[in-house]
Amino acid sequence: MAIQHPLLYPLASAAQISQTPSRADGVPDWLEEDLRAEGCRLIQSAGILLGTPQVVMATAQVLFQRFWYVTSMREFSILEVAMGALYLASKLEEHIARMRDIINTFDLLLSRLRYTLSHPSMPLDGFQYTPMSYYSDEYYAYKDELIIGEMQLLKRLAFNVQVQLPYNTMVNYLNVLGLGRIEDIAQMAWSFLNDALQTPVYAVYPFPTIACASIHLAARQARVVLPEPPEHEPWWELFDTDFEDIEQVCVWVLRLYSKQDEKEREEVFRLLLGGRKEVKKWLEDNSAKNDVAMEHLNQH
């Protein structure tokens, strides 16, 4: 059993992990997982366009993931929480992004997504974006959503918005294992840490476990043999981590690379664009379909 790390930041409880608020409201596992991932990709894309440091984008994604362990997607939209998370993270990391720039960037990304869904066979070269007016109703609607998102993040996370990222820890662990000078392995592990932000693992596992998982994945990809039992002491025990937890993190990350069903992907994008109203409608429609199916089964 791994030694418990003294944490200055919250992790989801076993009860929250087994039954998230969204799942309690009827959102299936696959849909919640995909909406979480798309929300994080939205944050990352917006951050890149805004030129914000990686630490801001990573912090925003961790806060975004934590939020859905205390709140249902039936109550708030992916968009408002994503915008609020990026704005809040820019303050926490002292690289403050202007509210107007965040709003215009998210509007650009959503407009591009709408174009892609409406013109699936057309290249993005045909997409043209016109920024909204600073005085338009649409702009103020976005502004309200951003402010609500930031306020609800602070409120529902009880102002516990401390985030500790595993990047430096991962580099230190590589050096301890004598892998720091192996070409490309640090870069691969770094990339796995970035990809893991699209999953809930940062809200579930302590950062040393995530750092070890990225090393495990990078070593496998680079075909580097790490010391393993019974010939050697388990390398992960050097860092007070549990191999079962490392494997679970790896499963989350590797799941990102599996091919997504095209219809499911379109459904996720539609719900992302439609916000909580569209999610509520989807839940009501599926509940009605399930009731009809159950009634049909009972009759037979």
Looking at this protein, list some descriptive labels.
2 domains; 300 residues; mainly alpha; 12 helices; Cyclin A, domain 1; disordered N terminus; disordered C terminus
Radius of gyration: 21 Å
Spans of at least 5 consecutive residues with low confidence: 1-5, 291-298
CATH homologous superfamily heading of the largest domain: Cyclin-like
Structural class label: mainly alpha
**Content of β-strand:** under 5%
Pfam families: Cyclin_N
Family: Belongs to the cyclin family.
GO molecular function: cyclin-dependent protein serine/threonine kinase regulator activity
Domain Cyclin-like: 41-155, 168-258
Describe it:
The chain has 300 residues and is an all-alpha fold. It has 2 domains: 178 residues, Orthogonal Bundle (Cyclin A, domain 1), CATH 1.10.472; 89 residues, Cyclin A, domain 1. The protein has 12 helices and no strands. Helix 4 packs across helix 5, helix 6 packs across helix 7 and helix 8 packs across helix 10. The N terminus and C terminus are likely disordered.
Compact overview of the structure:
Helix content is about 65%, strand content about 0%.
